[in-house]
Amino acid sequence: MATGAADNVSSALEEFEGDLPSTVDEAALERMRVSARILDEGMRVPGTNFRFGLDPIVGILPGVGDSAASIVSLYIVAESARMGVSQSTLLRMLANVAVDTIGGSVPIIGVLFDAFWKSNKWNVMLALEDLADGGQAEREPKTVSID
């Protein structure tokens, strides 16, 4: 997923609003959105459309920074699991967090990596997409034709 408008997650929430089940915890979605925004897109480089968050800033602290950011990232995954996001989507979300943690832990280059790799924003988008389609991609029975 590419970076784009100032708050893609908020616009996605509006886009999926009618498709989300009524049982979805809207307060949890808002907490997830705020967490993703703070970590991935909380600040803008003046004169540009490039946004970054606290993830690359706390990543400057060796070991501790990326660990702290990963814990917040795992909160988004945990909330998604609690809301019933499919297992395959949760695995994709965990893979995003793992890439973010490993890539961000590389000295010096990791800070730049964290500024561009928006795993939290992507994970909220994945959760919204899965909730909107009801996890049908994983839950629908597969038919196999033996000819």
Description:
The protein is mainly α. It has one domain. The chain contains eight helices and two strands; from the N terminus they run H-H-E-E-H-H-H-H-H-H. Strands 1-2 form a two-stranded antiparallel sheet. Strand 1 and strand 2 form a beta hairpin. The N terminus and C terminus are likely disordered. This is DUF4112 domain-containing protein. InterPro entries: DUF4112 (IPR025187). Keywords: Membrane, Transmembrane, Transmembrane helix. It comes from Natrinema salifodinae.
Offer a quick outline of the entry:
The protein is mainly alpha-helical and 147 residues long. It has helices at 8-16, 26-41, 54-58, 64-83, 87-104, 109-116, 119-132, 136-139; strands spanning 43-44, 51-52. α1 runs parallel beside α7 (119-132) and α2 (26-41) runs antiparallel to α4 (64-83).
